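Collaborator request log, item 7. Partner lab (contact: R.S.) asked for a structural prediction of glycerophosphodiester phosphodiesterase to inform their binding assays.
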Amino acid sequence: MLKALVAAALLAVPGAAMADPIIIAHRGDSGERPEHTLAAYDRAIDQGADFIEPDLVLTKDGVLVVRHENEISGTTDVADHPEFASRRTTKKIDGEDIAGWFTEDFTLAELRTLRAKERLAQVRTANKRFDGLYQIPTFEEVIKLAKAREAETGRRIGIYPETKHPTYFASIGLPHEAPLLAMLEKYGYGAPDDPVFIQSFEVGNLKLLRGKTRLRLIQLVASQGGPPDMAGIAYADMMTPEGLKAVAGYADGIGPSFDMVIGPDGADSGLVASAHAAGLQVHPWTLRAENMFLPKAFQKGDDPAAHGDFAGAVRAVAATGVDGLFSDFPGLARAALQP
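Returned to partner:
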């Protein structure tokens, strides 16, 4: 009954059936390939993604590489390399003690000896068959792939990089901003209408970038916590009308967790309208097909790893008027929005 009510509500939303947000492939087609690999990005493009999203961390020799975190034991086979056993350590990242192996302790050449593996192996068991096949890509390789596929397909393929832990990296002498902007400029990205968004959970990083580039910037926010570089400030404070106005002073949009956009029942929270009133775009993250990641109204059955009503969840988010959405399954997200 609840799902029927949600569906009826969506039909009642003016323009809901015509919603056409951009589809941002979260770490590539990470529902079907190990995340942040060239294979995942290539498949995402085949699946019709408008943008591909690389998370950016740095190597010891200052190269931007693509990993969800700078700690890489969960996404590579580094633990299986005895030559790197002594590099396992514990570091404080954004106030939290993290144990493992970190990209900033490896040169690019050393990282090239590692291979990627599925991060959510207990949920996406089929992806384990790709473990050991792919290297860690550089940011430049992701851009080159996008450019090559643009030439092949005749359509624009956007780049949506996230700066991971920028304050931490700056504190160890490896700031993101200069190499990030230099690489984008090298491949012709610099204008506000170029197919690039740069995102961060931090505030200072975006404000610094605002003074250096005309490319579009997105303030990431979550339903809990606050910016790691802004002690005492909660993301919730930034989502008030006054807070959104302040964000609009340095960013072009927000990237909220999707549970800030719709409730457990699929109902519109009103955040999108408030952000639009402040002149901000809205690109919520991250829509995944598995029950364990879906709102209660869109779960099907008792298996947390089974796919639920993913299409219904995508349509519920789109009906709020979002300008884009992140998904691990860009092909399924695109299909959900088809008439």
